[in-house]
Amino acid sequence: MDWLGPAEWQAVALSLKVALWATLCSLPFGILAAHTLARREFWGKSLLNGLIHLPLILPPVVTGYLLLLTFGTRGPIGAFLQPLGIVFAFRWTGAALAAAIMGFPLMVRAIRLSFEAVDPKLEQAAATLGASKLWVFLTVTLPLILPGVLAGAVLGFAKAMGEFGATITFVSNIPGQTQTLPSAIYAFLQVPGGEASALRLVLVSIVLAMGALIASEVLARRVQKRVNGA
Amino acid sequence: MDWLGPAEWQAVALSLKVALWATLCSLPFGILAAHTLARREFWGKSLLNGLIHLPLILPPVVTGYLLLLTFGTRGPIGAFLQPLGIVFAFRWTGAALAAAIMGFPLMVRAIRLSFEAVDPKLEQAAATLGASKLWVFLTVTLPLILPGVLAGAVLGFAKAMGEFGATITFVSNIPGQTQTLPSAIYAFLQVPGGEASALRLVLVSIVLAMGALIASEVLARRVQKRVNGA
Amino acid sequence: ADFTVFAAASLRDALTEAATVHEASSGDHATLVFAGSSALARQIEAGAPADLFVSANTDWMDTLEQAGRIDPATRADVLGNALVLIGHGSAAPVTPDTLDLPALLGDGRLAMALVNAVPAGIYGRAALESLGQWDAVAPLVAQTDNVRAALALVATGEAPYGIVYATDAAAEPQVSVVMTFPQGSHPPITYPGAVTTDAAQPQAATAFLTWMQTPQAQAIFARHGFTAGG
Amino acid sequence: MSVSVQITHTQGAFTLDVAFEAPPGITVLFGRSGSGKTTLINAVAGLLRPQAGRIAVEDHVLFDSARGLFLPPHKRRLGYVFQEARLFPHLSVRQNLAYGRWFAPRSAPRADLSRVVEMLGIGPLLDRRPAALSGGEKQRVAIGRALLAAPGLILADEPLAALDEARKAEILPYFERLRGEVPILYVSHSAAEVARLATTVVVLDQGRVIRQGPAAEVLGDPSVTPLGAREAGALLLATVKHHHDDGLSELDAGGHALFLPHVAQSPGSTLRLRIAAHDVILSRARPEGLSALNILPAVVVEVRAGDGPGAMVSLDTPAGRLLARITGRSATALGLAPGVRCHAVIKTVAVAPENIGAPRSAEEQP
Amino acid sequence: MSVSVQITHTQGAFTLDVAFEAPPGITVLFGRSGSGKTTLINAVAGLLRPQAGRIAVEDHVLFDSARGLFLPPHKRRLGYVFQEARLFPHLSVRQNLAYGRWFAPRSAPRADLSRVVEMLGIGPLLDRRPAALSGGEKQRVAIGRALLAAPGLILADEPLAALDEARKAEILPYFERLRGEVPILYVSHSAAEVARLATTVVVLDQGRVIRQGPAAEVLGDPSVTPLGAREAGALLLATVKHHHDDGLSELDAGGHALFLPHVAQSPGSTLRLRIAAHDVILSRARPEGLSALNILPAVVVEVRAGDGPGAMVSLDTPAGRLLARITGRSATALGLAPGVRCHAVIKTVAVAPENIGAPRSAEEQP
Ligand SMILES: Nc1ncnc2c1ncn2[C@@H]1O[C@H](COP(=O)(O)OP(=O)(O)OP(=O)(O)O)[C@@H](O)[C@H]1O
Ligand SMILES: Nc1ncnc2c1ncn2[C@@H]1O[C@H](COP(=O)(O)OP(=O)(O)OP(=O)(O)O)[C@@H](O)[C@H]1O
Ligand code: MOO
Ligand SMILES: [Mg+2]
Ligand SMILES: [Mg+2]
């Protein structure tokens, strides 16, 4: 399609890459966090819960700024990771990290609700049949929370596709590296008469996210059907 | 406390007002939308689902701009509502509308997951005992999804406390009218040396949202306990 | 009378101080609304209750003038600013003649505001072009959504150098001004002001705009690092 | 009030295709696991919309596919005791019990809460939530919830399965009393319950009705013995004559005395007795000096050899038709054949308490 | 392998405080609804950690509060049939059945899948999910799942409650065969099941053990009759002598012949018979010309008047201790008193199939 320039195509590809990696990499942590919040009681649970919600509460710029301070090459975590070859600053990985963190509270909530809906009696039944905690989780709990995991993943993906403030503050806007769709859209909207170009990108954004949304619904329905009979 | 100026206190009060109203007013719609998506099959369901997720997918600035175009005094809906005395443009009501719309996908997802976890057999039992659809909903379904409703409300509230891009784009940043905490934080961050003041507001923001979070957890635990025994 | 000023966010401190002084002498109270110039311009187009608009960007003022939303007769350039190259910590100064940015940067990044969208970025790009550095530097530029974010990148050391307004550089101890771009290297940086056509308090707004150009007011702005307009 | 059901419905590999008319009283659905009992009851409840058919209680049509009529469950005035308790987890036992009352028409006759609570033995549980109940306790609360809804039709899917004998014995009379007031569809696997409660028995097999009719007829038919030969038995009607001081009650069955452990009914009232075929011993001569008190003169009507070593003997006695299950060897030894006179020995205590029921309705009284 | 349980545990207003030793075989827990059976079994399964006590299977300690030892459920090698089926909704019937196998030690003796499937009659259901099963079908799959886990201890909480008689009759022999292999704790409300399966009976009431001991002793004790007088009965051991052509099997019980409908065991093998007290008729003279084939000479040991019009007579016969429940009136009429000789008439077919079981273990064989 020639109604998008090469720079825009690059932004589209990058956005997809960032959103996918952000979603996939944060999913295990999301499940872990959701499990911890749903099933465990410990001192500091409220704190952890609050921490996870922080990116939702704070203006994205602030989150981006805090990311810069901690995960930047000079930040405590960034400096620690750098020798290991893990660099976030000005890389698409940083954009993915920002997107993942911004979407994390949404993901965790969805998965947590699913955990809370699992009947512990089924997990007990699995335990009496010889399944250790890990196996119970893998063979009973996880399949039963799959719809919630899907919902969480879709929320995370959608958020990652739309994330802008924290990303640009943390890793700025480098075409091909960190210029995601929202950054490109924002740039168009800053100049008079940029609305038409912005609209084109908005449409692309919508189409991509809708595709993910519909795919997730179809998948969720299939999972649900298997459980409900037939 | 005198470490916050009157304008800042105003922003705190306004943010709370906006977040509360946004959450409370969108909750019934959130429940309705969640119910529709969880329980009904109809043509255009994917479309509705996509529409609800739109504010998540789009950069907030775009959402704010679209709100400005439709709900502004010159926008189609804004112009229609104005004679009825309902004005969103550049009022706190507009900030609440923006916050509500931005938080809507989060709220709907949480409530929808809860709907999907309700055992339809219990609803059937209520129906055999003479409860009409509405009564079944009020006496069985609603109490059972309460944890999800709470989770949805808290997500909505947290998002409303942190919403910035759409709000400032839609209703600007008018002190006492539309200057919420995040807008105030943004304004501080735009000038040299404003970081300290911004940090103060960030802390206030965190404290407020944490309070809401903890309150919701306590409430949810109480609800859950009643169901699980004793 | 009470009137409302929509002003570029970077003017927050200077304009707040000026308005207080002005109110003491005139008795007119100004409600100050700070946001990005583009957002404010769009809102004024959509009918925002602004009496006076002070933009950081002549383009948006031109757009509003063409749309008939401001009174051209009142339009005046009230302030100016200078563009500087900053370095992290206490970097050694350079002169425009000896400037070799690629060498300075090495594999580091040059932090700027969006070079096609945000005024500071546009000015910076023009300056680098006229100094013959742009082509070599372009791939190394990290663009942010506003000048302050670019400043933050340099302040944290994430980027060794950046281009910001003199007003921003002055108050940040973590950076040092390496070079001030010659006046002629970029279009003049001006902050145009104008009274809106829908103004409810055109007299008060005009009076304030006029007062801003008096030596008393200009002294205040100078203290915040701004230069005289026009 | 009679119930008339005629439906066809396919779910997966299973097709339910039934038609029966149940006269007033308790209609027991009997059949093996998976034969379609729950599916049938769900259709009557309106939880399942059959692909075709018609369901009516008296003149009140609940479902008619021909007319496109389908009354939703909440308009059917049901009291449904589900196979699994299905209590509302967020409500206390008391609130669960009261649930149906909120929706019952004000005018409906209401079961007395305290009486039902006492009968079910759930008084100490009223303020608990279902999660803190034992399996049998849940089931009892579910029974109470259905009974207290002032239903116009009771559906009970193995309501007593999880209960001990003593508890069953306390609840059964309640269902018996309801027999005259509300039509009841009752699923049970217990022959004793069937015998005691059923006005009508409908036997299902693989989704079809293989036998239906008045309880006495279905249970007394030696050619059917759908319940397994062991469960065959006959139902007799008898009138209470006298309560003796030693705790025995004397009844009159067709002019002959029968002795039972004390029954509650006052002299003059009529009872149903179930005499299981395997509890009857036959003798050509009238036996003397036996501990068994009940001996009826009988005439052999039919001797039917079973599939095993047993034989089922149908007898005419002054008290009515009786079945005796004996060995083929004995049948031969005693020379039993149609027309032969003999004596039926019934152990007093073999007339077990759960087989003693109040008569089902006025017209059945002799 | 014996099971030893001693625990105290309080939940809400209920306190479980039990101690018993169960020798190898099936230990039936018997008690009214809410008496603590499920709580007890959950403690043995490790789903509940009792406040104090000790649980061991042979030398294998599962729980010991004194030593702070608590083996988690998955290390206890259990096969638990829950009171509610608790099937995994996301797995097919086949996968549900196979679930426990994944975790069983390779070396454990494995029940044969196809044999279990056939016994339970769930062959056509293997590819369905639990949501598409009837109540009884679910329960059968749950039984299969537990049996196929190659358990070292079987816990069964009313496993047959939702099943029809015919299906029960097909499954009971399987449990019987397991009796010699795996210790089994079995909750049941059915006296017939208890009599047939139990090696040991533990009677619970309000969280306490009110009676425990070998099945024959507990069931045959007229002073306890915990199951309600109607259910009292005695257990006899008899040896198969001969299978007759007319379908009867002749057994030897202490030198006297007993005739039963054909039994599967070959001549020489030993059986347990349950003779319900209410199935025994007494006569001073040896009765002649009765259809009942089994008549044993007996000496009255004790006559105990019950709370009603009945009396429980303990008898010594060459085949062992027998109980007869007759009316007080007959006891008086026949002049029954300790030491009196009489004859016990037992209807052949009253020795019901479910009361015929294989002997429990080698040392019990006479
Ligand atoms: N979570 C709980 N909290 C408080 N009390 C409980 C709880 N669960 C069960 N109980 C009580 O403990 C007692 C024993 O329950 P249990 O489930 O062991 O009974 P049961 O013998 O299995 O009965 P049933 O035959 O009805 O299944 C009951 O009185 C019950 O009310
Ligand atoms: N959702 C379903 N899809 C397909 N088949 C089903 C479904 N539900 C039940 N069945 C099948 O329909 C048949 C009848 O089921 P139903 O529940 O009516 O049996 P039932 O007579 O109540 O048995 P039980 O005594 O075991 O409860 C069974 O063979 C069952 O496998
Ligand atoms: O605040 Mo500005 O007008 O975007 O630099
Ligand atoms: Mg059923
Ligand atoms: Mg139980």
Automatic annotation (TrEMBL), chains A, B:
- Pfam families per record: BPD_transp_1
Superkingdom classification of source: Bacteria
Q: Which CDD domains match?
A: TM_PBP2
Which Gene3D superfamilies does the record associate with it?
MetI-like
Keywords of this entry = Cell inner membrane, Cell membrane, Membrane, Molybdenum, Transmembrane, Transmembrane helix, Transport
Major site of localization recorded for this protein = membrane
| UniProt xrefs under PROSITE patterns | ABC_TM1
PANTHER family assigned? MOLYBDENUM TRANSPORT SYSTEM PERMEASE PROTEIN MODB (PTHR30183)
Summarize the protein's role: Part of the binding-protein-dependent transport system for molybdenum; probably responsible for the translocation of the substrate across the membrane.
What name does the UniProt record give this protein? Molybdenum transport system permease
Protein species of origin = Pararhodobacter zhoushanensis
TrEMBL record, chains D, E:
- One Pfam family cited in the UniProt record for this chain: ABC_tran
Keyword Transcription regulation (UniProt): no
| Keywords, ordered alphabetically | ATP-binding, Cell inner membrane, Cell membrane, Membrane, Molybdenum, Nucleotide-binding, Translocase, Transport
Q: Name one GO molecular function term.
A: ATP binding
Cite the ABC transporter domain residue spans from the record: 5-231
Per the record's keyword annotation, is Transferase included, yes or no?
no
Domain (Mop): residue spans on this chain? 289-355
**What SMART domains does its record include?**
AAA
Which InterPro entries does this chain map to?
AAA+_ATPase (IPR003593), ABC_transporter-like_ATP-bd (IPR003439), ABC_transporter-like_CS (IPR017871), Mo/tungstate-bd_C_term_dom (IPR008995), ModC_ABC_ATP-bd (IPR011868), Molybdenum_import_ModC (IPR050334), Mop_domain (IPR004606), P-loop_NTPase (IPR027417)
Q: Identify the NCBIfam families for this entry.
A: modC_ABC
Which PANTHER family is this protein grouped with? ABC TRANSPORTER I FAMILY MEMBER 10 (PTHR43514)
**Name assigned to this protein:** Molybdenum ABC transporter ATP-binding protein
The source organism is Pararhodobacter zhoushanensis
